[in-house]
Design brief:
mainly alpha, 2 strands, about 5% strand, elongated, binds zinc ion
Length: about 110
């Protein structure tokens, strides 16, 4: 019986040791973060800038990609919106639309 009790006490002591050190570890981590606040911030900033640069590069490649529009004009991805507003493009869309309408009505008449 005595041995059992001793073992239990040891276990409890072990637990206490663990708990004490656990809170110490948490304290250490908190202190570390507090002490290295600027370092961590700087690291995060560098990381942000690095990813931003990569993102911008990817975007630039994407934007400089040449696309041939259905109207026959070759434009960049970044110019797509402004190209859609050009007279040439609008005229092409209108003409195509008009041609298709006429085709449809001709087919109706044939029936
Ligand atoms: Zn176009």
């Amino acid at each position: 019986m005595e041995t059992m009790e001793t073992m239990e006490t040891m276990e409890t002591m072990d637990n206490m040791y663990y708990l004490t050190h656990k809170s110490e570890r948490i304290n250490y981590q908190t202190n570390y973060n507090e002490k290295n606040k600027d370092k961590i911030k700087e690291y995060q900033k560098q990381y942000y800038l690095k990813t931003k640069e990569t993102k911008l590069k990817t975007q630039a490649i994407h934007n400089s990609k040449k696309i041939e529009c259905a109207c026959g004009v070759i434009h960049n991805q970044s110019n797509k919106t402004s190209h859609m507003r050009t007279k040439k493009h609008k005229r092409y869309i209108e003409e195509t639309h008009y041609r298709e309408e006429r085709k449809e009505s001709r087919e109706e008449m044939a029936m």
